[in-house]
## 1
Amino acid sequence: MNDTVRGTVEMSAAMAILGTIGWFVVLSGQPIMDVVFWRCAFGALTLLIICAGLGLLRNRLSLRIIGIAALGGVAIVVNWLLLFSAFSRASISIATAVYNTQPFMLVGFGALFFAERLTLTKLTWLAIAFAGMVLIVEAAPDASDVGTDYFTGIVMALGAAFFWAVAAIVTKKLKGTPPHLIALIQVCVGVVMLAPFANFSQLPADAWSWTMLATLGIVHTGLMYILMYGAIQKLPTHLQGSLSFIYPVIAILVDVVAFGHRLHLSQIVGATAILITAAGMNLGWKLWKGQTPIASPHPVK
């Protein structure tokens, strides 16, 4: 099996695992704060074993690198809190679709802080994604299909995408640092952040809940990072981008099959618009022959 085939299998498996995360969050039956805490705790233990096995703990990290990784960890943890909270409000399907506005957040950060140029194609993709968001927000979902606060769920999913983009920008400063080690620092930050808020007085009393929580940490964090980072080392960027869309497809299928949620036509059109535009951004699809740059704002000093 050559590297491309192996990387494709690894990336597909990682995205499929990620697509089931909403199912495990809901079935755990635990408050979101506790879910994220235990994900971080089990994830930290798993990644600690992995890093030790790979000999990464012998790496000497400067306080600067640790500080930057920790800052990214704060953003990642807030991202998880918001996304998991959105599942019960806007449904897993809609929350996942809205969450995939991440590439547009990165485009905005690039223009604001790094003086990256905006092309007509990028602005067109942004306009299509915005139209998709309008269709989703204006939909009138049945009360039985989603939670009681649909709009708040959408805002939370957007907030999750924003903090993911923040974490991505921060992580760009850590080029050359082993990614498994970055992930370990980030989940350890999550443990420290959320320990004061975790409900230790009323721990899950049944094996099912503990199994769900452990799976989120061991499989959806530890194993998923191994597979994803392994694939990233083997695959070209365009193939990574295309395979990443296995995640929202699996998440929507899980929502339909496991929870019986059905999207309205306007929600389907809106979600499809967002996913297509995200694919266009990730894979560099061109809508126009010319790529006239639009002047971007001056970077913040």
## 2
Amino acid sequence: MRRMRVTAVLLPLTLALAGCSGASAPAEAPEPLGAAEPADSPTLMAEPAGTVVPLDPDAEGMVFDPVTGLLAVAVRNPNRLLLVDEDTGMPVREVPLPGHARHLQLAAPGGPVLVPAEDSNSLVEVALPDGGTTVTPVGNYPHDAARVATGQVLVADEKGGTLSVVTDGTVTQRITSQTQPAGVAALGDVAAVVDVGAFSLTTYDVPAGQLVDVVDAGEGPTHLVADTRGRFLVADTRGDAVLTFSADPLRQTARYPLPGTPYGLAYDTTDQVLWVTLTATNEVVGLSTAGDELTEVARFPTVRQPNTVAVDPTTGRVFVGSRATGELELIDVR
């Protein structure tokens, strides 16, 4: 069942009576807030941690594959997927894309990389390490995608308000219960979707094509990941917090305040650490998920406009990409 916020407003009697004494223009209704966005990051106040290497314009969307040791990074002008060597931070292969991307996930260790190419209305699956591609037409402006245990891929068609279920390279179902779907994460055959227009989190049984549950998800959620304890972790970007949700039943169990406009997320399954970029302060923060409550275990200064982050669960190395400068930051945290 959807859990909705209910707000009661009580007007003082004197104001109510005053309002009856003369006609006045009705107050204009406030405009809807809309989807939360990363902060416009300030100039750097501290030297970025680790090593910073040049990459390419508009770096946003990253995922690391521990099998091949490759970091996949989406860049623009032109739209490409860079496959980057972990040790040097240098691209070893470039894969042309039909559109730009902001989110990347692995279908499984070893690939392929799931690339929602937004302005081409297609899901591109990029094989590792050779960069071969499979392109599937999906809904309007695909923003994120995740594969569930059965092998189906759930794609969030952000501007279409739909979810496309892709099976073996073909859309086999289209779900229409979203307003503006964005981040997607999977636990087994269940996928969770952040709706950035409705500020909600919804779970779906993907093989059955059924909505399971929906709950409120803060003041302006954007991204989410699943952790090793079977929970969903959501960046409440407008609310300056990370929210923890149990999966079954779907409900919010904790809120961790994190000032700085949290945005990009990556999860280290080995150390059980959630890495969160703070776009208002040019930082990346590590939050341990080993307990019932999140706890901060690390914090580093980053490159400017750190919209995206990835992590190598084998070595613990953290990668931060700059949307503003096209730089890549490599931080060794262990």
## 3
Amino acid sequence: MTCESRSERAHAKINLVLRILAREASGYHGIETLFQLLELHDLVHVRVGTMAPSLTCAGPTMPVAGLGPVEQNLAWRAAAAYTSASGWNTGWEIEIEKQIPVGGGLGGGSADAAAVLRAFEALSPAPLGMEGLLQIAGTLGADVPFLVSSESLAWAWGRGDRLLPLPALPTASVWLAVFADGVNTGAAYAAFARAREARGDIVPAFAYPAEAFSSWASIAALAVNDFEPVVSAMHTGVAGYLPLLREIASEMRASGAPAIGMMSGSGATCFLLHTGAMGIRTDGLMALLPTFTR
């Protein structure tokens, strides 16, 4: 049996800006967001050949109950979508070493799917090109187009399938507050929609200055996540940690070091991003997961 293999790093992401736009007739909410890639990553190993399709996941961040049916896993769906779009009649074996916390708003499943797409593209006898990869990625989830692009920093809008790559910023330290239980994305959107309807809010227009994303200081001045109020009401960990991380970030900014304390995606992971040379204040915090921007 002739096989070829490829391994890819599947990097996590955080959202430095996440605004939820109007709900479409389909019920889907558009977004606009600022993605930042993290050094934290899963490892994805892909083999192609005449074998039957298979997917295995293991690693320290795997939930005790597993990840559910393999056919519903984004990595499996990415492989199936790539072979269908390219007309490539091949089997595959996918092995994922999980290091990214599952269900925490860090894009772990999306990162694995993006890594699978990149691996298949590298192994394919008829590559689709980045445009083809982005088209497939857009059908898999709002985070996947950014994560398949391998950009470090990018502005995205619509369903995450419209990307504006931005110049990478200097490396920053990121501390992640992760929890055993995550937040269901659908439930978070539903809660946000109910809250917006109850307030009678109209989605506000907002203009970003040309230099908005040119430095950590300018990003810190604009950082926002529209999910935070509703997720704080849904998740006690977010309700407890988020105010503390915001307070630490505020203190660091007051001392002249750009810092951001907020929640990533629909949660529940909260983070403190900072560029200070000194260690962060950790009183009142349990163990945090350190990483860096990439």
